[in-house]
Amino acid sequence: MTKPTPSLDVRALRKNFGTFEALKGIDLTVSHSELVFVLGPSGSGKSTMLRCCNRLEEPDSGDILLEGDAVTGRGVNINAIRQRIGMVFQSFNLYPHLSALNNVTLALRKVQGMSRPDAEARGMEALAQVGLADKATNAPAELSGGQQQRVAIARALALEPKVMLFDEPTSALDPELVGDVLEVMRDMRTAGMTMLVVSHEMKFARDAADRVIFMDDGQIVEQGPPEQIFGAPQHDRTKAFLSRVSDH
Asked: 35-66 burial, b for 16+ CB within 10 Å, e for fewer?
């Protein structure tokens, strides 16, 4: 039997910022419908790896493949690739003068060329997915931080991506608002979305992840199922990191 093509395949990925080696040859595959959680201290390369996956950062060397198609290299239509890789950031990046629905439909109309009625139907579907159909006409300023982040997730989902990347999606939120965003991510996992998540939400990683990766100093130090990484980490650096964060 041939192995199915992974949703995301990262091979020997390297990235330098001046003399600083941010990524030192990362190899990572994410299977279809898998939720992979990336942990590690600040400066370990987690966000840089994520940003290389949709070319917000240009890798210095290595290959990234999305369902077997090149993301890196010459001649790649990066706009077409980005429609297949959704990304949710720490900051919500919503347009303050647009309603929630118009924030979600903007790319559908401008990038995919959808008619306004079709875009709005898709946009309402995406807002319903994140539990915000009743807030479609609200401006971002009228929404809580958690609701704004859910609009940002809806905006990514509306493009019907194959993979979703999350870069610290809850770190800018008040603690009581975090749960709603994680609930949406849980629902997405149940629906079969492939997800690569950088976050410090340990309980969510324990409960929801299929695999946990620990990064330090630009490398993947250790990876495995959550019960192994949290319950019996093999590497000293993983143990030290987890003992520090579990104290909080």
From this structure: bbbbbbeeebbbbbbbbbbbbbbebeebebbb
69 forms bridges with which residues in the sheet?
66
Amino acid at residue number 247: D
For residue 71, count other CB atoms closer than 10 A to its CB.
22
Q: Which two tokens stand for residue 207?
A: 């409960």
DSSP 69-137: EESSSTT--HHHHHHHEEEE-SS----TTS-HHHHHHHHHHHTS---HHHHHHHHHHHHHHTT-GGGTT
Instruction: Give, to the nearest 10 degrees, the angle between helix 145-158 and helix 175-190.
Output: 20
Measuring CA to CA, which residue among 79, 156, 77, 84 is closest to residue 122? 156
d(CA 200, CA 112): 34
Sequence-separated (6 or more) residues with CB below 8 Å from residue 180: 131, 146, 147, 150
Beta-bridged to residue 216, according to DSSP, are 219
Report the alpha-carbon distance of residue 191 to residue 75 in Å, rounded: 33
Rounded to whole angstroms, the Cα distance separating 149 from 167 reads: 12
SS3 at position 226? helix
**Low-confidence residues of the chain, pLDDT below 70?**
1, 246-248
Cα–Cα distance, 55 to 64 (Å, whole number) = 10
Return the amino acid letter for 137.
T
pTM for the structure as a whole? 0.94
pLDDT tens profile 73-96:
888 998 889 889 999 999 888 999
